[in-house]
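Fresh eyes needed here. Have a critical look at this protein's tokenised backbone.
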Amino acid sequence: MTPRQFSRLFSRDSRLASGRYFSSGPVRVSRGDRVGVVLLNLGGPQGRRELETFLYRRWMDPVVEKTRLRPGRHSFVRIAAKLGSRSLWRDYEQIGGECPINRRSREQAAALQECLNGALASRLGVTFKTYLAMRYGTPSSEDAMRALVRDGVTKTILLPLYPQYSIATTGSSLAYWSVMSEAEKHSTLDTTAVLEYAAHPDYLQSLSERIDEALQRFPKRVRPATHIVFCAKSHPAGGALDAEESFCRLMHESIRRVVDLRGAGHQHHSTFFESRQSDLGFGHEDTRNTIRRLADDGAKSVLLVPIGITTDELWTCYTLDIVLRKEFEASSMRYFEVASSLNCHPLFIATLSRVVARHLTAVSDQDTGGDRASAPITSAGSSESAALRAVRACETCHGPISARQWTPLPTEFRPAAGA
């Protein structure tokens, strides 16, 4: 499906804000099933020749740009993408001439597949296979769909590599998959979608461990006074955050829980990075302004922690670690570091596998009175509704999605970290 076709077929409705393009409840699996886990990510150009196509697909996205296909828009975006790729490629050259998100995502998919096909697959009697569906890069959603059909997958789980739901990331990927499924006549596939795992304790722990790793790069004497600045992208199209966005409340929930987990050893700040320095909206701090304020207050060291993504990309490796570092060096501060993304952190891969396990319901091999007896993978005495209790969110944030309260898996269904 081309970007022009998607623009014609896509209709903005309440599903975009809520993510309800697919069921988010557990899918029923029985022995012999092949379960496809589709990892949703942004993607990036494999090389200079793909950069123009990547920009064209991104700038044509009606979810991000909030516009229908108008006469002349296709040609205008084509020209803009061609011109923009010339200057943007210089940024890629400074990080090695390729986008790290492609390699890192492949590594995440391979690690997750290995983890899932351990104890969990053995217990359920199913086979797991992971697929990448890059929203603007390759392999595309179409590539993933063709591979699912070719491999005879019977159940599908759409798993975003974005822990916090956002319209511009998970929302766009789910909307595209929904429209594509209808267009390709594959809408009958048994599919469930993971919307977010912002408050998953293993995700929070892995993020905390990445912070500890980054703090080791500071001299020991300055670590205690280092300010930890959480940094998230604002809306990709620039400007104020969408009024229907759930990302802000989910991001603040993740940060609040990480801070609670780590204790009061450092001062923490929640910010948004806006490259165009436009209005972020009420109650949202700009990353640059926060760093300047800290410098004016006499702070000497800052650790920047990207949040909202789990894979290194141009934004983390170039914008934050090169561009923002240069701006930092002009200030009175002395120490500046950027924490690595989670990538293939063993506990994060275990997080993804446990999220997948929570979206499965085992069906016994024994037929009882004509009905299949189901055994939901939940802890004793708990139910799916209990596992979906809302947790407290930021008072200034709004949106239809609250962070899910994750309950522990029974030991026999719990994939081990590093498996």
